[in-house]
């Protein structure tokens, strides 16, 4: 996985406004898609052609464990190529149920990763407030790593979006070896323009990778119903015209992926949510996205629309650290490398 960690020598808090229309450029999302194991078990034949897929067995309560492991066994019989994760909302349940024998069972099934979603009180409060070993997320990462699993953090979306986790707690969690995180946006899907969302994810990734001191495995969660509702924003946000269902989220995932901000996407869908293959096919098929960069003479304008705004920042960001030439690649001073000096050119002309 290529590093997404960027060193900003000239850092500041950016509030970006985007207003660029969509133009034809085909993008296909080829990274893994994570979906609930009970849904995958029910519709595996529809999902197999959409590989790579990851089936995550989410344990909502202690009583879920046996049923979810059964789902993984059934999937393994039908589809040996799919990767398995197992997710927990309560660390105490995880610690009591994942005995050495069950850890061995999960490894034999092919489970590679454990996710932790501290949504239930008081554990969600402990996650945000307690330090050291008293923090359940610290204990979760230790348990996962000590038992040979990767560890992913999946808190409520607003927790990461609103920077609710103190930096010292994040530093403690990452020091134990947390591999990455998934942002659950919930209603942000329905209320925010694509590039505003991309900007916020970019800020979150930079902050967490800076604290961790390394590249992280990152993703975002989307849901079919909220993505369909979000389509109403397409023309309002200058992302349109609307030409297909789920276009708003498709553009969002394409932008995140093309700028190297995510390594996978997750779909929250229990078995009762029905077949999600139509939804997933939108991301796997080539689709329209934001403009391809073209040459320009205006300092800081990478995409040739005669504006210096957030779109040009994202182009600079996607080429940061590369030895490439020209404003279309974010090299605004034409010295053959994209770095902080080019960022200053963009910043000094932002909004012009």
TrEMBL record:
Alphabetical GO biological process terms: polysaccharide catabolic process
What GO molecular-function term can you cite, just one? hydrolase activity, hydrolyzing O-glycosyl compounds
What Gene3D superfamilies would the database entry show? Dockerin domain
> Keywords of this protein's UniProt record, alphabetized?
Signal
> SUPFAM superfamilies of this UniProt entry?
Type I dockerin domain
Q: Which residues form the signal peptide?
A: 1-24
Put simply, this protein is called Dockerin domain-containing protein
